[in-house]
Amino acid sequence: MSVIDARLVKYLPAVKDTPAFRLNLHFQADDGICLVLGPSGAGKTLLLNCLGGFLRPDEGRITVRDELYFDAGRNVHLPPERRRCGYIFQDHALFPHMTVRQNVRFAASQTGNRNSRRNQHKRINELLTAFDLGDLGERRPAQLSGGQKQRAALARILASDPRILLLDEPSRGLDARLRENFYELLRSVRERLRIPIILVSHDTDEGFEVADSICVLEHGEALQAGSSETVLKQPANVEVAYLLGVYSVAPATIRTLDPGANKTRLLVLGQEIDGPYFKGHLKGDSGFLCMRRSEMRVVPPGERHTTQQITLQVQRIHPSTGGIRIFLADGFSVVLTTPEYELLGDGNQITLEIPASAMAFTDK
Fold this sequence. Notes:
Elements: E1 4-12, E2 21-29, E3 32-37, H1 44-52, E4 59-64, E5 67-71, E6 76-77, H2 80-83, E7 85-88, H3 100-109, H4 114-118, H5 120-130, H6 146-159, E8 164-168, H7 176-192, E9 196-200, H8 204-210, E10 213-218, E11 221-227, H9 228-233, H10 238-244, E12 247-258, E13 263-268, E14 271-275, E15 286-292, E16 297-298, E17 309-320, E18 323-328, E19 333-336, H11 338-343, E20 349-353, E21 359-362
Parallel strand pairs: 3-9, 3-10, 7-8, 8-9
Antiparallel strand pairs: 1-2, 1-4, 4-5, 5-6, 10-11, 12-13, 12-15, 13-14, 15-21, 16-20, 17-18, 17-20, 18-19
Helix pairs in contact: 3-5, 3-6, 5-6, 6-7
């Protein structure tokens, strides 16, 4: 059984221009980082608030390590202070009138553990040192940078000895360097705390780097949940592929299947291409070929063509932070360094090589 097992139904009535909404899902998570993805309004923050006890579901049941947090049928609803859920909001939610040390001390005092109280001073100093806050202990939140506030918020959470860590867009508003520092810090927290860490993030690239599992939400329901490797390699449907943000997607038809050679021949955008054997599908099946952009390669002019290449029209070209972004037909795009771009010449077509390992096929 999973560490967190939550069957939730929560209704939100229509308000002004906002339509009614229903969260209805079975959410499970184990120790480690679970990345919760989905568009705005999918129900991600609502899920966190139900787990943390800030909202009471209308139906369902929540257990954490077999301890009952909520049961609609038995009228059980533990308040947030009894759930030991560390919750970091987008604004970090430090007490503005307290220093960093006082924020951490307050959290430590709420654990109700006498041994913790006797060793409180030592514990606080250890946390301040671990998060490079030793020289900042007497500062108030207004005197801290964004990265320092993050570290202080995490130190305070750890002082409360949480059983679950809930992170709601914790890197929003930080520049690239601070985001990188935060995710490095989160990795160390994962090793330090052997508990479920639920991370809501729009920063999918960095989220993927730390996530052990992924749950994709849309319209209050889970479209797919599982290990990061499983979800990334085989999206359950085309909606998940788009929401993951790492695939280019195109309609495709299976022409032939050869399990012995581990090969499938597909018709994609009017061109034939070889992919891996797609188990469970039949010749003639129509669906969508999902191709991970990070593994696509632009084929230089003059290089020999293979059976894993497609050619697309160039639509427009723009500079980007990674070099030159080339937008192609049918929603494809690639980013090249300036030297790579110069090797292409002035042609109006680009050939992409797509390895079989980068392909997934879904008929939904």
